């Protein structure tokens, strides 16, 4: 039995031993290197030496950008362990999205839930000793274990949609800086936990409280002590609604480490950034929270229409609240070739905290539309599933377009509503299909 190394230095020295004499070294240790520590190893000669672990040499190792890890390793033991088919957009911090055709399930399985990290997740979490602090402008500050949450409050399970505010950013022109999400920074899993509202009411919300502030146990990319990568909040009226959970289970099991284990907030319909992962503290404030990624232009859009590329003054940005009406086509996969003209088109639709009233499908570039069959949400906060039997009249190339309309009559636009940071792209999803 090899001793498990337990510090970065120890990993480093084992790795150096491996570089000196691969035949004699403890090869197995590499598989256990936490991904945050791997970064230092994977440069130049270090990367070349990893050939042993990958089962092949790396002819172009000199070109490998430092800071990335080989995808083959990432999938096996890194942040994407337990995920299936996600596209890694960045490994520091970890950001991975799900191709639309892998989001076909009515309820998103954990292995298909996207990952959006702003910092470095905590490495060792102990659910039994995890504590959540509720303080700030409350009558009685609380410190709760997960066992306390389960025993003192009603435990509920709900399907809840989380979408990153930057989903669809890849399609902005001029481009917006940040993760180039295409379609897959959205999911609707089953979450089990207690209502945020019940916990806040148990602590007693003071009259002066106007905003929540959330903290998690992840570290800033700089690893600086006490510096949070992200701390967002929401107006107290929103926090006291029924659909927001402090969740300790995802699809009937412990949360995935990258989705916030052992405890997180789930705020459906608002930007995913409200749903603090690795949740350690919620405090109530008498000002709009000003934590990291609450200020400047983070998660904000201009409060008036702007031209693509237009410079917008900082004071003209508003904090994003609800996410806009949107839909996703999950079948067929784009670029699919079908042998029959009769096909089923499927997908999901959602609109912040509203319900969807219709999803329309077009196969003729928007000239005519047919109504999809639309399910009611399984509960409020869940996306709605839809399907349509579609007939492709003759062989050839088609695009399937989907357009959702919500119960306030708002429908998805054809073109992107451009904004400087690339948020809220709810333009229609188009997939290419060849009837051959
Ligand atoms: N502690 C913490 N919570 C966080 C984040 C983070 O980086 N750290 N990212 C937020 C953002 S921007 C999004 S979109 C969601 C994504 O949740 P997921 O990674 O479980 O899909 O988590 C949010 N909660
Ligand atoms: Mo996000």
From TrEMBL:
Q: Does the keyword Oxidoreductase apply?
A: yes
Superkingdom, taxonomy of origin: Bacteria
Q: Which UniProt keywords apply?
A: Metal-binding, Molybdenum, Oxidoreductase
The Oxidoreductase molybdopterin-binding domain extends over 122-289
> Residues in domain Moybdenum cofactor oxidoreductase dimerisation?
319-434
Cofactor annotation: Mo-molybdopterin
Give the CDD domains listed for this entry.
Answer: SO_family_Moco_dimer
Q: Does the keyword Metal-binding apply?
A: yes
What Pfam family is a match for this entry?
A: Oxidored_molyb
- Coiled-coil portions: none
Quote the PANTHER family the UniProt record gives.
Answer: SULFITE OXIDASE, MITOCHONDRIAL (PTHR19372:SF7), SULFITE REDUCTASE (PTHR19372)
List the protein's name: Molybdopterin containing oxidoreductase
Where does this protein come from, organism-wise?
Sneathiella chinensis
